[in-house]
């Protein structure tokens, strides 16, 4: 079947941004695969998921269970990246005009307005822009979870060193949302200026109650920043509805964008409270070098200089693809795979599952440990003997292994993991 380019891209789930970037012969070769794209069936969903999984370039037999570390990008997304990059090279263009459409896609994806979105290099950069940009004085306090990734914690520790900001941390609770809220409330003092949480914690995948925290912060006049490196693309949410002041995420994890992509959201009403720390062309559209240097209207003032437009276009294509698959459907699939692993692992002797089963507190990641073998050895055996790439969890002496389950994974890999754990425990 010979499909025109538009139909082909539509079938692959690549929307307007991808189309703007143009297609090539190589892309059209995938039309045959697109023609065979299955319709989702509630009764028999596996062919659908198998077809989506087949889009990834992952080595056959190698189970990649670490989207939380670095998410693979699907072949069609990489094709868009490639094509856009090459097309821009034809006339040596920056492709800056392509950002506007991509901004719309990511705004829709995150439940924000396009002017609230800035493209950054990764979640760390977004977190850093907030930490460095807020007007904090010596003695001002920031609260965050002690399961924060260095990309979420170091920007604040840096502020502690540079500006004398005081850092206070709480341990995320596995009990319930109310307990997590209570732990934050207990740390609030008259000097608290910022609360930041990992939307989903990196070590064990605990989902924190961002809506309730946003309300609390609003009532107390405290800035609320979310480190969403692990949440965007894992399950759907709307930033404006959550009510946070700012949010940063990686594009190269659960959204499935190319490496070195990320998004920073700053709520329109709060934009001017974050002083840009890195500026240049595009931060201001002023043509001369006068001292006025008024910033451009939106969060995009935090973008500066020449950028990799192909990466941004491909990130938007990845987000678009998820919307076409169905965000709720993806979230449910992740949860179902985690449930399958949980059921298998829970039946084994001496295994301690650290991620709560409560659906309010967890989604598509699960971490577990066993007193019989240290986390790094367990990680090494799963990889070396069973070709299962998990993520070792050394943080806070948790001594665990973390598993992320997303579009590149399948039920067979869940079963392989349980079988591998069974085999390892038999010989340990
Ligand atoms: C919660 C959290 N924040 C930040 C990061 C850092 O992400 P990036 O390397 O994309 O900046 C990670 C990475 O795993 C993370 O889990």
Small-molecule binders here are: pyridoxal-5'-phosphate
CATH topological fold name of the largest domain: Aspartate Aminotransferase, domain 2
Principal-axis shape: globular
| CATH architecture descriptor text of the largest domain | 3-Layer(aba) Sandwich
The name of the CATH superfamily of the largest domain reads Type I PLP-dependent aspartate aminotransferase-like (Major domain)
As an assembly, this protein is single chain
Count of separate structural domains: 2
Q: Which structural class do the helices and strands define?
A: alpha/beta
What is the CATH top level name of the largest domain? Alpha Beta
Question: How would you summarize this macromolecular structure in one to three sentences?
Answer:
The protein has 428 residues and is α/β, with parallel strands linked by helices. It contains 16 helices and 13 strands.
Structural write-up:
The protein is an alpha/beta fold and 428 residues long. It has 2 domains: 227 residues, Type I PLP-dependent aspartate aminotransferase-like (Major domain) (Aspartate Aminotransferase, domain 2), CATH 3.40.640.10; 99 residues, Aspartate Aminotransferase, domain 1 (Alpha-Beta Complex). 40% of the residues lie in helices and 13% in strands. It contains 16 helices and 13 strands. Strands 2-8-7-6-5-3-4 form a 7-stranded mixed sheet, with helices on both faces. It has a 4-stranded antiparallel sheet with strand order 9-10-13-12, covered by helices on one side. Strands 1-11 form a two-stranded parallel ribbon. Helix 11 links the parallel strand 5 and strand 6. Helix 7 packs parallel to helix 13 and helix 14 runs parallel beside helix 16. The longest helix is centred in the last third of the chain and has 20 residues. It starts with a helix and ends with a helix.
